[in-house]
Amino acid sequence: MENIDLINSFSEFKDDKLIDRVTLMAILEDVFRNALKKKFGQDDNFDIIINPDKGDLEIWRNRNVVNDGEVEDENKEISLKDARKIEPDFEVGEDVSEEVKLYQLGRRAILALRQNLISKIHEHDSTNTFKYFQDLIGEIYTAEVHHVRHNVVILLDDDGNELIIPKEHQIPSDFYRKGDSIRGVIEKVELKGNKPIIILSRTTPKFLEKLFEQEIPEVFDGLITVKNAVRIPGEKAKVAVDTYDDRIDPVGACVGMKGSRIHGIVRELGNENIDVINYTNNPQLYIQRALSPAKIVNIKLNEEKKYAEVTLKPEEVSKAIGRGGHNIRLAGLLTGYNIEVFRDGIEEEDVELTEFTDEIEDWVIKEFGRIGLDTAKSILELDVSDLVRRTDLEEETVLNVVKILKQEFEE
């Protein structure tokens, strides 16, 4: 293969990948110098002249003329006799520049050189892709479903870049079909070998925040700030918003008339139930708003331990806890407080669950307390199946607790 053929074929590859001229020349020179080192042992006495625009490549070897029979390094020295074959008037001590043709490197070297060129281009392309997507971490990105596997969905963007959505970053209700256009947030970018692994997430709270930016003009313009967002993907989310402009109702602006503004976000997130609340620096008021729609009787805070005891009317407890404990869990994540719910006005004949520590293990009592059940009657009022569903307890454990509590009242 002639020099010009190799450069031309590489230039076509360069045009496809949009590599700039300076980078192209640097890659070419690096590859050719590696080939020269393998052939001649060193490359510091070679000049490589490249003009990729015209497809020109010249390699010149520089050697010093020495007396016949005194050549010690054939790569850097040439005998007077051989020098005069190039130019008859050369003298000892002068420098000779001789062009090296590509075929002189040998067929194997040429094939290896070409493969090395392609490898360097792929490496350059992967590095650029990695840097490009690293700058996009935390931003919404759209790509098309290319392949659906059991634990991962593979996407391709308009430039042919591959992105993946692992199972843990998929909303449980998501259903993917080849050709579907999918939105998510660039969660992470890793290099595996020379290949960039780009992870798209639809479950991170950042995705919800960015959707607010895209769908609500006041958030995009900075008039309304999303202070915090927490999610149980596909189930429920809470978003705290604030504004410096007293004329704006941040919650109303985000929700819109009859939910018109937030409806698109809800639909994008698989009908995730989204509560939007006004942010405040007052922790008691913040917790009260976070536990909405429940009405709170009293709140006791331990700010040092980030602990809150919330007292509610018995009929409000289930609202504060929410289905599957989602409401209280998200309220805790949003405010940063560990929230425990207590019933107001416990009847005299009722007994607090902590009185049964001799018979019921402490972790079991805490698990019931986590969903707002802190008295014997609050547990006995519910079906065993409902208790199993709402807690992380086995049915056998729940049945044992119910048996102990019933015995207390029978006595």
UniProtKB/TrEMBL annotation:
Has the keyword Aminoacyl-tRNA synthetase been applied to this entry?
no
Gene Ontology BP annotations: DNA-templated transcription termination; transcription antitermination
> In this protein, which residues make up the domain named Transcription factor NusA N-terminal?
5-124
Top-level lineage group:
Bacteria
Claim: Ribosomal protein is one of the keywords in the record:
no
Q: Single GO molecular-function term?
A: RNA binding
Checking Pfam families in the record gives: KH_NusA_1st, KH_NusA_2nd, NusA_N
Where does the Transcription factor NusA first KH domain lie?
Answer: 202-279
Subcellular location as annotated: Cytoplasm
Q: What is its main location?
A: cytoplasm
Question: Which GO cellular component terms, listed alphabetically, does the Swiss-Prot or TrEMBL entry include?
Answer: cytosol
The text of the family note is: Belongs to the NusA family.
* Quaternary structure, from the entry: Monomer. Binds directly to the core enzyme of the DNA-dependent RNA polymerase and to nascent RNA.
Q: What is this protein called?
A: Transcription termination/antitermination protein NusA
The organism's taxonomy opens as: Bacteria, Pseudomonadati, Bacteroidota, Flavobacteriia, Flavobacteriales
Gene that this polypeptide is encoded by = nusA
